[in-house]
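Researcher: Please predict.
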Amino acid sequence: MFTKNVVATVKAIYITSENGVEMNISTSTQLDSTLKSQIDKSDEIPSNKQIIIPSDMELDVFTKEFKSILIETSSDVFVISHDDGYGTVGSTTHIPLHKLSTEYVVVSTEPDVNRKSQVALAAITDNTTISIMFKMNRNVALNINGNAFYNNDIMDITLHRFETYLIEHETDLSGTFICSSYPIAAFSGNDCNKLENMGACDHLIEQLPPTRNIDKIYIVPPNADGRDSIIKVLAINDSTIYYEIDAGRRVVTLNSFESFVTRISSSQACFVYSENPIIVVNFGLKSKTLEDIADPSMTIVPGINQYLDYYKIVVPSGYDINYVSIMITEASKDSLRINNTRISVGDVLFEKNVAAGNVTYNVRSIRVKEGELSASTVYGERFGLMFSGVTYYEAYGFSGNSLTLEDLSWNFLIISV
Protein backbone atom coordinates (compact mmCIF):
# COMPACT_ATOMS: atom_id res chain seq x y z
CA MET A 1 0.00 0.00 0.00
CA PHE A 2 1.08 3.59 -0.57
CA THR A 3 0.42 6.09 2.21
CA LYS A 4 -0.98 9.54 1.52
CA ASN A 5 1.51 11.95 -0.02
CA VAL A 6 1.31 15.74 -0.38
CA VAL A 7 1.90 15.87 -4.16
CA ALA A 8 1.10 13.68 -7.15
CA THR A 9 3.63 10.86 -7.37
CA VAL A 10 4.76 7.95 -9.51
CA LYS A 11 4.28 4.80 -7.45
CA ALA A 12 6.70 2.05 -8.39
CA ILE A 13 7.50 -1.43 -7.10
CA TYR A 14 10.89 -2.98 -7.93
CA ILE A 15 11.28 -6.76 -7.81
CA THR A 16 14.63 -8.52 -8.21
CA SER A 17 15.66 -12.16 -8.12
CA GLU A 18 18.95 -14.02 -8.26
CA ASN A 19 17.50 -16.19 -11.01
CA GLY A 20 14.35 -15.92 -13.07
CA VAL A 21 11.03 -16.28 -11.21
CA GLU A 22 7.36 -16.56 -11.97
CA MET A 23 5.31 -13.80 -10.39
CA ASN A 24 1.64 -13.30 -9.63
CA ILE A 25 0.18 -9.98 -8.43
CA SER A 26 -3.33 -9.88 -7.03
CA THR A 27 -5.66 -7.52 -5.16
CA SER A 28 -8.91 -7.86 -3.27
CA THR A 29 -12.13 -8.82 -5.02
CA GLN A 30 -13.55 -5.79 -3.18
CA LEU A 31 -11.29 -3.38 -5.09
CA ASP A 32 -12.79 -1.26 -7.86
CA SER A 33 -12.75 -3.44 -11.00
CA THR A 34 -11.03 -0.78 -13.12
CA LEU A 35 -8.20 -0.47 -10.62
CA LYS A 36 -7.98 -4.23 -10.17
CA SER A 37 -7.62 -4.81 -13.92
CA GLN A 38 -4.62 -2.42 -13.98
CA ILE A 39 -2.78 -4.28 -11.21
CA ASP A 40 -3.58 -8.00 -11.25
CA LYS A 41 -1.23 -9.93 -13.52
CA SER A 42 1.05 -12.92 -13.90
CA ASP A 43 4.48 -12.58 -15.44
CA GLU A 44 7.96 -14.01 -15.66
CA ILE A 45 10.82 -11.94 -14.27
CA PRO A 46 14.20 -12.88 -15.79
CA SER A 47 16.16 -10.71 -13.32
CA ASN A 48 14.29 -7.56 -12.28
CA LYS A 49 11.06 -5.74 -13.01
CA GLN A 50 9.57 -2.34 -12.33
CA ILE A 51 5.80 -2.20 -11.84
CA ILE A 52 3.93 1.12 -11.87
CA ILE A 53 0.91 1.25 -9.57
CA PRO A 54 -2.10 3.51 -10.29
CA SER A 55 -2.11 6.68 -8.19
CA ASP A 56 -5.65 5.88 -7.00
CA MET A 57 -4.14 3.12 -4.84
CA GLU A 58 -2.85 5.80 -2.46
CA LEU A 59 -4.53 5.47 0.93
CA ASP A 60 -7.10 7.92 2.24
CA VAL A 61 -6.88 8.89 5.89
CA PHE A 62 -9.18 7.29 8.51
CA THR A 63 -10.87 5.13 5.85
CA LYS A 64 -11.12 1.36 5.55
CA GLU A 65 -10.11 0.44 1.99
CA PHE A 66 -9.03 -2.67 0.11
CA LYS A 67 -5.78 -1.16 -1.21
CA SER A 68 -3.10 -3.70 -0.44
CA ILE A 69 -1.34 -5.69 -3.17
CA LEU A 70 -0.18 -9.29 -2.84
CA ILE A 71 2.97 -10.35 -4.72
CA GLU A 72 3.69 -14.08 -4.96
CA THR A 73 6.83 -15.49 -6.58
CA SER A 74 8.18 -18.96 -7.27
CA SER A 75 11.48 -18.33 -5.47
CA ASP A 76 13.44 -15.71 -3.52
CA VAL A 77 13.07 -12.04 -4.44
CA PHE A 78 13.81 -8.62 -2.98
CA VAL A 79 10.99 -6.06 -3.13
CA ILE A 80 11.13 -2.31 -2.61
CA SER A 81 8.52 0.37 -3.25
CA HIS A 82 9.38 3.89 -4.35
CA ASP A 83 6.95 6.83 -4.26
CA ASP A 84 8.45 9.74 -6.22
CA GLY A 85 6.96 13.18 -6.85
CA TYR A 86 8.27 16.68 -7.48
CA GLY A 87 10.54 17.56 -4.56
CA THR A 88 9.59 14.54 -2.45
CA VAL A 89 10.24 10.79 -2.41
CA GLY A 90 9.82 7.87 -0.03
CA SER A 91 11.08 4.28 -0.27
CA THR A 92 10.96 1.13 1.80
CA THR A 93 12.07 -2.49 1.68
CA HIS A 94 9.17 -4.94 2.03
CA ILE A 95 8.87 -7.89 4.39
CA PRO A 96 7.58 -11.28 3.17
CA LEU A 97 4.22 -12.51 4.47
CA HIS A 98 5.58 -15.42 6.47
CA LYS A 99 7.67 -12.93 8.47
CA LEU A 100 4.75 -10.68 9.40
CA SER A 101 3.65 -10.74 13.01
CA THR A 102 1.12 -9.47 15.55
CA GLU A 103 3.19 -6.84 17.37
CA TYR A 104 4.85 -3.65 16.10
CA VAL A 105 6.14 -0.36 17.50
CA VAL A 106 5.84 2.86 15.49
CA VAL A 107 8.73 5.14 14.55
CA SER A 108 8.13 8.58 13.05
CA THR A 109 9.23 12.22 13.51
CA GLU A 110 7.60 15.31 14.96
CA PRO A 111 5.75 16.84 11.99
CA ASP A 112 6.47 20.31 10.68
CA VAL A 113 3.62 22.85 10.57
CA ASN A 114 0.64 21.54 8.56
CA ARG A 115 2.28 18.12 8.16
CA LYS A 116 1.39 14.76 9.70
CA SER A 117 2.94 11.63 11.14
CA GLN A 118 1.47 8.43 9.72
CA VAL A 119 0.68 4.84 10.69
CA ALA A 120 -0.71 2.43 8.07
CA LEU A 121 -2.04 -1.09 8.58
CA ALA A 122 -2.96 -3.96 6.26
CA ALA A 123 -4.61 -7.26 7.15
CA ILE A 124 -3.93 -10.61 5.48
CA THR A 125 -6.72 -12.52 7.27
CA ASP A 126 -10.43 -11.79 7.58
CA ASN A 127 -11.73 -10.54 10.95
CA THR A 128 -8.35 -9.35 12.20
CA THR A 129 -8.80 -7.26 15.34
CA ILE A 130 -6.12 -4.63 15.92
CA SER A 131 -5.44 -2.60 19.08
CA ILE A 132 -3.38 0.58 18.86
CA MET A 133 -2.05 2.15 22.07
CA PHE A 134 -1.08 5.68 21.14
CA LYS A 135 2.10 7.32 22.35
CA MET A 136 2.22 11.01 21.47
CA ASN A 137 5.15 13.39 21.69
CA ARG A 138 2.60 16.14 22.41
CA ASN A 139 -0.63 15.13 24.09
CA VAL A 140 -3.00 16.63 21.53
CA ALA A 141 -6.33 15.14 20.52
CA LEU A 142 -6.40 12.69 17.63
CA ASN A 143 -9.95 12.88 16.29
CA ILE A 144 -11.12 9.76 14.43
CA ASN A 145 -14.73 9.41 13.37
CA GLY A 146 -16.02 11.54 16.23
CA ASN A 147 -13.80 9.98 18.91
CA ALA A 148 -10.89 11.84 20.52
CA PHE A 149 -7.77 9.82 21.41
CA TYR A 150 -4.94 11.06 23.63
CA ASN A 151 -1.60 9.73 24.82
CA ASN A 152 -1.91 6.12 26.13
CA ASP A 153 -5.48 5.77 24.81
CA ILE A 154 -6.31 2.56 22.91
CA MET A 155 -8.11 2.38 19.60
CA ASP A 156 -9.57 -0.92 18.36
CA ILE A 157 -10.32 -1.68 14.72
CA THR A 158 -11.22 -4.79 12.69
CA LEU A 159 -9.85 -5.30 9.18
CA HIS A 160 -10.44 -8.04 6.62
CA ARG A 161 -8.04 -9.62 4.13
CA PHE A 162 -6.39 -6.95 1.91
CA GLU A 163 -8.12 -4.19 3.88
CA THR A 164 -6.04 -1.15 4.85
CA TYR A 165 -6.30 1.77 7.26
CA LEU A 166 -4.26 4.98 7.51
CA ILE A 167 -3.91 7.12 10.65
CA GLU A 168 -2.43 10.63 10.61
CA HIS A 169 -1.66 12.98 13.50
CA GLU A 170 -0.07 16.39 14.02
CA THR A 171 2.48 15.05 16.52
CA ASP A 172 5.11 12.31 16.55
CA LEU A 173 3.60 8.87 17.19
CA SER A 174 6.90 7.10 17.92
CA GLY A 175 6.41 4.43 20.57
CA THR A 176 2.81 3.71 19.61
CA PHE A 177 2.24 -0.02 20.17
CA ILE A 178 0.24 -2.13 17.72
CA CYS A 179 -1.01 -5.65 18.44
CA SER A 180 -3.37 -7.82 16.41
CA SER A 181 -5.19 -11.15 16.54
CA TYR A 182 -3.55 -12.31 13.28
CA PRO A 183 -0.34 -11.18 11.54
CA ILE A 184 -0.56 -7.83 9.77
CA ALA A 185 1.72 -5.45 7.85
CA ALA A 186 2.47 -2.13 9.53
CA PHE A 187 4.11 1.02 8.15
CA SER A 188 4.98 4.37 9.70
CA GLY A 189 6.60 7.71 8.91
CA ASN A 190 5.40 11.14 7.82
CA ASP A 191 3.40 12.47 4.88
CA CYS A 192 6.17 15.00 4.18
CA ASN A 193 8.50 16.40 6.79
CA LYS A 194 11.26 18.97 7.07
CA LEU A 195 13.83 18.17 9.73
CA GLU A 196 16.06 20.58 11.66
CA ASN A 197 14.43 23.47 9.76
CA MET A 198 16.62 22.69 6.74
CA GLY A 199 15.59 22.55 3.09
CA ALA A 200 12.10 21.34 2.21
CA CYS A 201 10.06 18.30 3.22
CA ASP A 202 10.26 14.71 1.96
CA HIS A 203 7.89 11.74 2.29
CA LEU A 204 9.14 9.42 5.07
CA ILE A 205 8.00 5.79 5.14
CA GLU A 206 9.23 2.41 6.38
CA GLN A 207 7.63 -0.99 6.75
CA LEU A 208 8.01 -1.80 10.43
CA PRO A 209 9.83 -4.97 11.47
CA PRO A 210 7.97 -7.23 13.91
CA THR A 211 9.15 -6.75 17.48
CA ARG A 212 10.18 -10.43 17.63
CA ASN A 213 12.72 -9.89 14.80
CA ILE A 214 14.47 -6.81 16.16
CA ASP A 215 18.18 -6.89 16.98
CA LYS A 216 20.26 -5.53 19.89
CA ILE A 217 23.49 -4.54 18.10
CA TYR A 218 23.79 -1.98 15.29
CA ILE A 219 26.36 -0.09 13.28
CA VAL A 220 24.93 3.12 11.80
CA PRO A 221 26.73 4.47 8.73
CA PRO A 222 26.60 8.16 7.84
CA ASN A 223 24.83 9.76 4.91
CA ALA A 224 27.36 10.99 2.35
CA ASP A 225 27.84 14.35 0.58
CA GLY A 226 27.62 16.62 3.58
CA ARG A 227 24.40 15.19 5.00
CA ASP A 228 24.22 14.89 8.77
CA SER A 229 22.13 12.06 10.23
CA ILE A 230 19.72 12.03 13.14
CA ILE A 231 19.80 8.57 14.73
CA LYS A 232 16.63 7.59 16.58
CA VAL A 233 16.81 4.63 18.99
CA LEU A 234 13.54 3.18 20.30
CA ALA A 235 13.30 0.62 23.10
CA ILE A 236 10.81 -2.26 22.94
CA ASN A 237 11.30 -3.08 26.63
CA ASP A 238 13.02 -1.29 29.51
CA SER A 239 16.62 -1.07 28.35
CA THR A 240 20.06 0.31 29.05
CA ILE A 241 21.55 1.41 25.75
CA TYR A 242 25.21 2.10 24.98
CA TYR A 243 26.36 4.00 21.93
CA GLU A 244 29.73 5.16 20.64
CA ILE A 245 30.63 7.95 18.22
CA ASP A 246 34.34 8.60 17.57
CA ALA A 247 35.26 6.35 20.53
CA GLY A 248 33.18 8.46 22.93
CA ARG A 249 30.89 6.13 24.86
CA ARG A 250 27.51 7.22 26.20
CA VAL A 251 24.77 5.42 28.16
CA VAL A 252 21.02 6.02 27.99
CA THR A 253 18.29 4.28 30.02
CA LEU A 254 14.85 4.02 28.41
CA ASN A 255 11.51 2.63 29.49
CA SER A 256 9.41 0.53 27.11
CA PHE A 257 8.45 2.40 23.92
CA GLU A 258 10.62 5.42 24.78
CA SER A 259 13.24 6.77 22.38
CA PHE A 260 16.18 9.12 22.19
CA VAL A 261 18.06 10.76 19.35
CA THR A 262 21.69 11.53 18.65
CA ARG A 263 23.44 12.99 15.63
CA ILE A 264 26.41 12.17 13.42
CA SER A 265 28.05 14.08 10.60
CA SER A 266 28.83 12.70 7.14
CA SER A 267 32.30 11.76 8.44
CA GLN A 268 31.17 9.74 11.46
CA ALA A 269 29.62 6.36 12.22
CA CYS A 270 27.85 5.11 15.34
CA PHE A 271 27.87 1.80 17.22
CA VAL A 272 24.72 1.04 19.27
CA TYR A 273 24.28 -1.83 21.72
CA SER A 274 21.38 -2.70 24.05
CA GLU A 275 20.66 -5.43 26.55
CA ASN A 276 17.19 -5.79 24.97
CA PRO A 277 15.91 -5.44 21.38
CA ILE A 278 15.75 -1.90 19.97
CA ILE A 279 14.80 -0.23 16.69
CA VAL A 280 17.40 2.08 15.17
CA VAL A 281 16.50 4.52 12.40
CA ASN A 282 18.76 6.82 10.37
CA PHE A 283 17.12 10.10 9.29
CA GLY A 284 19.31 11.80 6.69
CA LEU A 285 19.21 15.60 6.48
CA LYS A 286 19.68 18.14 3.71
CA SER A 287 23.23 18.44 2.39
CA LYS A 288 25.37 21.16 3.93
CA THR A 289 27.82 21.14 1.03
CA LEU A 290 25.66 20.66 -2.09
CA GLU A 291 23.22 23.49 -2.77
CA ASP A 292 19.57 22.46 -3.18
CA ILE A 293 20.54 18.78 -2.96
CA ALA A 294 18.75 16.26 -0.73
CA ASP A 295 16.11 16.55 1.94
CA PRO A 296 15.11 14.22 4.77
CA SER A 297 15.20 10.45 4.27
CA MET A 298 14.24 7.62 6.62
CA THR A 299 15.94 4.22 6.80
CA ILE A 300 15.57 1.46 9.39
CA VAL A 301 19.10 0.27 10.14
CA PRO A 302 19.75 -3.49 9.94
CA GLY A 303 21.22 -5.08 13.06
CA ILE A 304 24.44 -7.07 12.88
CA ASN A 305 22.48 -10.31 13.29
CA GLN A 306 20.31 -9.36 10.31
CA TYR A 307 23.15 -9.12 7.80
CA LEU A 308 22.99 -11.32 4.68
CA ASP A 309 25.65 -12.65 2.33
CA TYR A 310 23.83 -11.69 -0.89
CA TYR A 311 21.60 -8.85 -2.09
CA LYS A 312 20.15 -8.00 -5.46
CA ILE A 313 18.22 -4.74 -5.66
CA VAL A 314 17.38 -2.08 -8.24
CA VAL A 315 18.92 1.34 -7.60
CA PRO A 316 16.20 3.83 -8.64
CA SER A 317 16.82 6.14 -11.59
CA GLY A 318 16.65 9.93 -11.66
CA TYR A 319 19.13 10.81 -8.89
CA ASP A 320 22.35 12.81 -9.13
CA ILE A 321 24.16 10.61 -6.63
CA ASN A 322 23.35 7.03 -5.56
CA TYR A 323 25.39 5.16 -3.00
CA VAL A 324 25.35 2.07 -0.82
CA SER A 325 26.66 1.91 2.72
CA ILE A 326 28.27 -1.39 3.64
CA MET A 327 29.02 -2.71 7.13
CA ILE A 328 31.32 -5.76 7.10
CA THR A 329 33.99 -7.19 9.37
CA GLU A 330 37.31 -5.49 8.69
CA ALA A 331 38.90 -8.88 8.06
CA SER A 332 36.41 -9.58 5.24
CA LYS A 333 36.20 -6.19 3.53
CA ASP A 334 38.34 -7.21 0.55
CA SER A 335 35.96 -10.12 -0.08
CA LEU A 336 33.10 -7.78 -1.03
CA ARG A 337 31.94 -7.60 -4.65
CA ILE A 338 29.49 -5.19 -6.28
CA ASN A 339 28.15 -6.65 -9.52
CA ASN A 340 30.91 -9.29 -9.24
CA THR A 341 33.59 -6.58 -9.25
CA ARG A 342 36.03 -5.39 -6.60
CA ILE A 343 35.34 -1.98 -5.08
CA SER A 344 37.16 0.84 -6.85
CA VAL A 345 38.93 3.25 -4.49
CA GLY A 346 37.61 6.13 -6.60
CA ASP A 347 34.01 5.15 -5.78
CA VAL A 348 34.50 5.24 -2.00
CA LEU A 349 32.84 8.33 -0.49
CA PHE A 350 33.44 7.40 3.15
CA GLU A 351 35.40 4.75 5.04
CA LYS A 352 35.98 4.14 8.73
CA ASN A 353 36.57 1.19 11.03
CA VAL A 354 34.18 0.81 13.98
CA ALA A 355 34.71 -1.39 17.03
CA ALA A 356 31.70 -3.57 17.86
CA GLY A 357 32.76 -5.25 21.06
CA ASN A 358 35.86 -7.30 20.25
CA VAL A 359 35.16 -7.30 16.47
CA THR A 360 36.20 -4.48 14.15
CA TYR A 361 33.81 -3.59 11.34
CA ASN A 362 34.65 -1.66 8.20
CA VAL A 363 32.03 0.92 7.18
CA ARG A 364 32.10 2.27 3.63
CA SER A 365 29.80 4.39 1.50
CA ILE A 366 30.28 3.59 -2.17
CA ARG A 367 28.98 5.48 -5.18
CA VAL A 368 26.91 3.23 -7.49
CA LYS A 369 25.03 3.60 -10.75
CA GLU A 370 21.28 3.36 -11.17
CA GLY A 371 19.87 0.01 -12.27
CA GLU A 372 20.29 -3.53 -11.07
CA LEU A 373 22.87 -4.06 -8.35
CA SER A 374 24.10 -7.28 -6.75
CA ALA A 375 26.31 -7.39 -3.67
CA SER A 376 28.02 -10.50 -2.38
CA THR A 377 31.17 -11.81 -0.74
CA VAL A 378 33.69 -14.28 -2.08
CA TYR A 379 33.52 -16.61 0.92
CA GLY A 380 29.92 -16.06 2.01
CA GLU A 381 30.62 -13.57 4.79
CA ARG A 382 27.55 -11.62 5.91
CA PHE A 383 27.33 -7.85 5.72
CA GLY A 384 24.84 -5.03 6.11
CA LEU A 385 23.64 -2.91 3.20
CA MET A 386 21.81 0.43 3.10
CA PHE A 387 20.92 2.42 -0.02
CA SER A 388 20.53 6.15 -0.53
CA GLY A 389 20.25 8.64 -3.36
CA VAL A 390 19.91 12.40 -3.65
CA THR A 391 18.85 14.96 -6.21
CA TYR A 392 17.20 18.40 -6.28
CA TYR A 393 15.36 18.69 -2.94
CA GLU A 394 14.91 14.91 -2.72
CA ALA A 395 16.51 11.98 -0.93
CA TYR A 396 15.52 8.33 -0.67
CA GLY A 397 16.81 5.61 1.62
CA PHE A 398 16.12 1.93 2.28
CA SER A 399 17.97 -1.04 3.73
CA GLY A 400 18.74 -4.37 2.14
CA ASN A 401 17.07 -6.17 5.03
CA SER A 402 15.62 -5.45 8.49
CA LEU A 403 14.90 -9.02 9.63
CA THR A 404 16.77 -12.14 10.59
CA LEU A 405 15.98 -14.56 7.76
CA GLU A 406 15.81 -18.32 7.99
CA ASP A 407 13.71 -20.07 5.34
CA LEU A 408 12.80 -17.96 2.31
CA SER A 409 9.36 -18.36 0.79
CA TRP A 410 8.61 -14.99 -0.63
CA ASN A 411 5.11 -13.56 -0.75
CA PHE A 412 4.74 -9.83 -0.13
CA LEU A 413 1.87 -7.60 0.87
CA ILE A 414 2.39 -4.11 -0.54
CA ILE A 415 0.60 -1.07 0.78
CA SER A 416 1.35 2.08 -1.10
CA VAL A 417 4.06 4.22 0.42
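Model: The CA atoms of residues 316 and 374 lie 14 Å apart.
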